[in-house]
Amino acid sequence: MKFKDTLIDALKGFLIGTALLIPGVSAATIAFVTKVYDKLITNVSSLAKKFWPSFKALIPIGIGVAIAIVAMWVPLKLATQHVLFAIVCLFAGSMIGSLPEVTDNVRHQPLKKRYIIYLLLAILGGMSFGLLSYHCGLDVSSLFNPTIKWPVYLIIIPIGFLAAAGIVVPGISGSMMLLVLGFYTQILGMFGEGKAFGPALGVLVCMAIGVILGMICFSRLMKYLFSKVPTQTYIWLIGLVAGSIFSLFYNHDMMAYYEKGIAMWEWILGFVLLILAFVGSYALSLYGRKHAHR
After folding, report:
1. FRET pair for 199, CA 20 to 30 Å: which of 143, 229, 257, 293?
2. Average confidence score pLDDT of the chain
3. What is the pLDDT of residues 29-79, one digit of tens each?
4. Which pairs with CB-CB distance under 8 Å and at least 24 residues apart come from 6-11?
5. What SS3 string covers the chain?
6. Which residue would you say has higher pLDDT here, 205 or 173?
7. Residues 73 and 188 sit within 8 Å (Cβ to Cβ)
8. What is the pLDDT of residue 276?
9. Quick check: 265 and 150 in contact, CB under 8 A?
10. Is the predicted pLDDT of residue 221 greater than 50, yes or no?
11. In the prediction, which pLDDT does 268 show?
């Protein structure tokens, strides 16, 4: 691979890594728009059969992703600490704006009763993330403070596995899942004053393991589902995304934030960010759909 191509792949990886950290923005969507999606999925799904050629092709993208995560970590950490509601509005706007990208795939399909049932069940499934998080008292902060306890290492791998869906499935945000389940702000806050570096690094390693395993499994699963039952698959994705928007605003972390009180300026900021994110995400979706048909 030429140096220019390597640099371009690293830049695309940087954009994907930025999307990975922002709930509501699908990294798979960014990969699709930047025309690296097929390369990413093909090489990830081929790691078991052709490890070195596939791994070598993924290195530039991986480097870009790593640089983005390091660069964006602190700004997002500060934002979630001080203006969580406004940031969630930003994420929600991004999700709403990206929905047409998924709905376009079933727009011309005949409306069947079973499709409506699938959609409603999927919406309830997306809403259940937030409902279970709050009503079952899912407070994961107790796992991380004052020091990270060993159960986190067992939990983080499957959490990372689920988050990998945001890299593979267009329209789905892995970091949104982390936010709803209460892990997003905790993971962002792992490194800082009074935090042990070793355990935090261990959590990131477990997260990476889960993400890698998830990417391999989801890439194969998506290929199978889209080839066998594409319409049903898209309907389930639409429902999950729609239900998860509710869960962004209704989960354990957000309810605790509401109890502290939200200043009027943050309500206004949240509304403005939601609109801007919607417009930006929708424009990105339109761009992706336009270039997909070329």
Report:
1. 257
2. 79
3. 677 667 787 788 778 777 778 888 888 888 998 899 889 888 888 888 888
4. 6/60, 7/60, 9/36, 9/60, 9/61, 9/64, 10/60, 10/61, 10/63, 10/64, 10/67, 11/64
5. CCHHHHHHHHHHHHHHHHHHHCCCCCHHHHHHHCCCHHHHHHHHHCCCCCHHHHHHHHHHHHHHHHHHHHHHHHHHHHHHHHCHHHHHHHHHHHHHHHHHHHHHHHCCCCCCHHHHHHHHHHHHHHHHHHHHHHHCCCCCHHHHCCCCCCHHHHHHHHHHHHHCHHHHCCCCCHHHHHHHHCCHHHHHCCCCCCCCHHHHHHHHHHHHHHHHHHHHHHHHHHHHHHHHCHHHHHHHHHHHHHHHHHHHHCCHHHHHHHHHCCCHHHHHHHHHHHHHHHHHHHHHHHHHHHHHCC
6. 205
7. yes
8. 93
9. no
10. yes
11. 95
Q: Which amino acid is at 223?
A: K
Nearest one of 163, 176, 149 to 210, comparing CA atoms: 163
